[in-house]
Amino acid sequence: MTLVAILSGAGISTDSGIPDYRGPGGLWRRDPEAQRLVTYDAYMADPDVRRRSWLMRRDSSTWGAEPNAAHRAVALLEERSGHAVRVITQNVDGLHQQAGTPERKVLELHGSAHTVVCTRCAARSSMVEALERVAAGEEDPACLACGGILKSATVMFGQHLDPSVLAAAMSIAKASEVFIAVGSTLQVQPAASLVGLAAEHGARLWIVNAEPTPYDALAHEVIREPIGTSLPRLLEQFD
To answer: Cα Rg for the chain, rounded, in angstroms?
Structure first.
């Protein structure tokens, strides 16, 4: 049984209506100030940044998004091909799971936008509940358990990845025989380093992304076509 590892970035979700970050029309290029709203030190220090961050979360396109053809193709791959499939995602939208990939087979490197966490006591709760409080007039809702500052349970700029999640991702990369990086610029570390790690350990590498990445030279094939059509077509090769 072949182990197929799929590293997905923001580009896999653009067909679902969620904009990417670093692409030609990406959020950071259109609105550099938006990056400050997801920078940990600024968020913790400035109540105004937190208020604006909650409004950004409230208005996020994530909440109405549905899985697209690429997510569905990934979800069907293991059943259709008989290969073991593991998804390592840089995304926080949960669309792989919504498409049918079992939660235990998805590693969310950067956390989940569907959960909030207290920065003081680490209590976790639903993002839906937090946004209901925002809608009711709480501009910067505090933790109901201890009064601490709440944030999305995602990795902000200035925070480190969960060591256990990163270690699991590294183990998958080392063990994979096929490694597919899709919809990622492969510029954010340490996530991008998983590509090189897989290649070093003998995996055959495919990169599916609109723009060049630092790892293109290592790839068996680089695909520049739209992800919604090219990824399902690529995955059919692994039947």
So the answer is: 18
